[in-house]
């Protein structure tokens, strides 16, 4: 039984060292021009510095290029990937095949992680992209534990799953918020990567509030609850799932740090002393519940939903 990677999304360069010391094994960073729904904005100088700091601590850095690229950005991809190779990025996260083609030309040895948010739902598709050059497949959040274990058993690539944080429910390339305010006769300036924390869609019927924000990639609507399965890691660890991701979007650096510490403890105990993990997992869950924002209830996402064919 191998120990899965603990993958974390820092907000600032200054978060790298504290998170590394708290137990993070790898980081996802990037800038919104190329990456979707990042916890923070890392421009080129930030990326270079973050990679230096992470590598000093023996950690890895994956740079997100998982946006959908229209023609006006295609010409930029090769240069950006070449920059990432020079900066010693450990991998590029992609969904658009244009990134794959650019990487073959600009950095054929760059490791690639395939992520399309919703279509990583079966091992055959994961293996297909593995044959095209991907080293890892990032699974859709809408599949359950049984499906994840089955996919890992048959996958020829590494498997990454999200174990904590909010999920994406909807994205549109349109500026829906800006259009709505304009329709109302108001002016709303969407600042670069602002990600307003106080903007919600309210579903009165379900009594849910969905965080919503707008950036260069369009409009994003997020889940009303946060996934937390710190007390349900054992089955996936025993199945040798390769990477557990904590998504810190719309959270504070302090929150991400505290959650990272607790998942580090949970993973280590589950691998080294499963009985002790059983003894403390409920306590770890309670500790996260104590620091959880009041408007972000915890649940187990789709992990224990029944698959309907």
Description:
This protein has about 300 residues and is α/β, with parallel strands linked by helices. The protein has one domain: Alpha-Beta Barrel (TIM Barrel), CATH 3.20.20. It has ten helices and 14 strands. The strands form two sheets. It has an eight-stranded parallel β-barrel, surrounded by six helices. Strands 8-11-10-9 form a four-stranded antiparallel beta sheet. Helix 1 links the parallel strand 1 and strand 2. Helix 3 packs across helix 4 and helix 9 packs antiparallel against helix 10. About 40% of the residues are buried. InterPro entries: Peptidase_U32 (IPR001539), RNA/ubiquinone_mod_enzymes (IPR051454). It holds the Pfam family Peptidase_U32.
List the keywords.
single chain; 309 residues; alpha/beta; TIM Barrel; eight-stranded parallel β-barrel; 21% strand; globular
* Order of SSEs: EHEHEHEHEHEHEEHEEEEHEHHE
Major beta sheet, strand line-up: 1-2-3-4-5-6-7-13
Q: Supply Rg.
A: 19 Å
* Percent of residues in beta strands: 15-25%
From the structure provided, what is the oligomeric state, counting identical versus distinct chains? single chain
CATH architectural label = Alpha-Beta Barrel
What is the CATH third-level topology name? TIM Barrel
Q: What is the C-level CATH assignment?
A: Alpha Beta
Shape assignment: globular
According to DSSP, the number of beta strands is 14
Tally of separate helices:
10
Tally of distinct domains: 1
Fourth-tier CATH superfamily name: Aldolase class I
Query: What's the pLDDT, averaged over the residues?
Result: 91
Helix content: 25-40%
> Which spans of ≥5 residues are poorly predicted at pLDDT below 50?
187-194
- Sheet of most strands: 8 strands, parallel, barrel
First-residue to last-residue Cα separation: 32 Å
Structural class: alpha/beta
Organism: Cytobacillus praedii
Pfam family, one: Peptidase_U32
InterPro entries: Peptidase_U32, RNA/ubiquinone_mod_enzymes
Protein name: U32 family peptidase
């Amino acid at each position: 039984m191998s120990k899965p990677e603990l993958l974390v999304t820092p907000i600032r360069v200054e978060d790298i060292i504290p998170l590394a010391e708290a137990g993070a094994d790898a980081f996802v960073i990037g800038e919104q021009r190329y990456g979707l729904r990042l916890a923070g904005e890392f421009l080129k100088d930030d990326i270079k510095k973050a990679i230096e700091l992470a590598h000093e601590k023996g950690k890895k850095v994956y740079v997100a290029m998982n946006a959908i690229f229209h023609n006006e950005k295609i010409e930029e991809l090769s240069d950006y990937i070449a920059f990432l190779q020079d900066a010693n990025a450990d991998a590029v996260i992609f969904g658009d095949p244009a990134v794959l083609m650019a990487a073959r030309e600009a950095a054929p040895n760059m490791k690639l992680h395939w992520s399309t948010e919703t279509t990583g739902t079966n091992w055959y598709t994961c293996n297909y992209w593995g044959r095209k050059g991907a080293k890892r497949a990032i699974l859709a959040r809408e599949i359950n534990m049984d499906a994840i274990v089955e996919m890992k058993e048959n996958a020829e690539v590494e498997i990454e799953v999200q174990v904590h944080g909010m999920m994406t429910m909807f994205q549109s390339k349109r500026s829906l918020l800006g259009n709505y305010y304009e329709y109302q006769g108001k002016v709303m300036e969407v600042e670069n990567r602002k990600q307003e924390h106080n903007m919600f869609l309210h579903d009165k019927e379900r009594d849910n509030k969905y965080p919503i924000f707008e950036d260069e990639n369009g409009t994003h609507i997020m889940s009303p609850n946060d996934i937390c399965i710190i007390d349900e890691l054992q089955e996936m660890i025993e199945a040798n799932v390769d990477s557990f991701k904590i998504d810190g979007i719309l959270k504070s650096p302090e929150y991400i740090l505290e959650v990272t510490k607790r998942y580090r403890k949970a993973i280590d105990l589950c691998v080294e002393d499963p009985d002790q993990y059983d003894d403390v997992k409920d306590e770890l869950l309670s500790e996260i519940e104590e620091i959880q924002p009041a408007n972000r209830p915890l649940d187990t996402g789709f992990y224990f939903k029944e698959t309907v064919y």
